[in-house]
Amino acid sequence: MLQSAAIGLTKNSSRKPEPSVDKLGTIQLNKNATIEFRRLSTGRTIAVVDEFLAVPDDLRAYAAAQESEFFTPEKSYPGLLLDIDAHPMTDIYRFIRFELAPRFSFLRGGAQFSSMLSMATLQPDQLSNLQRLCHSDPPATGKRANFAFVLYLFKNEQLGGTGFYRWKERDAITEATALENEDPDKALAFLMERFPTFNNPPCYMTESTEIAEQLDVVPAKYNRLIFYSGDIPHSAQILSPEFLSSDINDGRLTLNCFANVRPKH
Q1: The dihedral sign for the CA sequence 244, 246, 250, 251
Q2: Which domains are assigned to the chain?
């Protein structure tokens, strides 16, 4: 069962400047936004923030102007990425440290951030073995923890939100990951032998399987941000991959941030 609580942010003047696409200034937050904290059945908490940016179209316009700069990563992400410098993210990083850190029990100081614009573009038959699964972010080293957020910057909600999961066969997935790094064919053979799901046509993971139980789904909504611990298994909830596109105006454009932090305990 999920539990939730909502709080409001302070008021802000409603300005709507014209988009600037040539360079990205500091991304302005909408202080009329609402934060909802949801508790998963496992006891973990995620945050959902609606109407997060003051002018989200500015960021869409910037992405469109930089379309030729998006690149395809070697593995992991099923689409295109564009790195974002720290300066435009100043207010967003401050929001994470001062609004979210107390609720997620990590220290404001010493946080390390990286951010990017992302576009999921791959069709199911193009997915790697591990892209057909939910995933956890790489574990933090030392006495640190990883958190992440996704901000939906697309208006077609059929492009899908985000699902959160609990591993049922974590050891098997760890073994499959090691095999994938060694030889994807060996990993696929292992997964097909172990899990009936992998004998079906490839697809994005969007429901409970024998591999993992789905705990919650946050639907896509324009200018909605979700914040969560990176060690909670999660996956894009792409039920209609035929709508995926590499066109900035039509595709599944998101702003993603990864925060490496120091827990309070």
Answers
A1: positive
A2: 3-167+205-261 (2.60.120)
